[in-house]
Amino acid sequence: MSQDLFGKTPLLLHNPRCSKSRQTKELLEERGTAFEVRLYLEKPLDANELRALADRLGGSLHGCIRKKEAAYSEAGLSETSSEEELARAMASAPILMERPVLIVGDRAAIGRPPESVFELLSS
Q1: Tell me, what CATH number does 59's domain have?
Q2: What gap in Å lies between CA 54 and CA 42, rounded to an integer?
Q3: Would you call 24 helix, strand, or coil by DSSP?
Q4: Is the pTM of this model over 0.85?
Q5: Residue 73: is it exposed, middle or buried by C-beta count within 10 angstroms (0-12/13-18/19+)?
Q6: Domain count, the chain
Q7: Which of 113, 116, 39, 54 is closest to 87 using CA atoms?
Q8: So which residues are the catalytic ones?
């Protein structure tokens, strides 16, 4: 995967309706961190971006999918679903993606708790 898939500036995958996402954004702003925001519900990640995101998170898409969302069962997903099945489902139903996510270079962190994204900025 290209390291430049998400760009060089830290990128927050943000859902303004999510309290954890709002808190993470506020913490980054308070710290004076320069970052871009992608409203992933309006501009969903495609399957390639989702696979690159999973790589940056250090695992598979199973670790960044919201299993309790109705769209998860509606898509027929399970613990045995393939990465390709998860990528297709998440690309077509972006609400399935865990949020918020901060991407910095070739690493990423889910902001749960919001302060967990600071590990990316301190290295």
Answers
A1: 3.40.30.10
A2: 20
A3: helix
A4: yes
A5: exposed
A6: 1
A7: 54
A8: 18
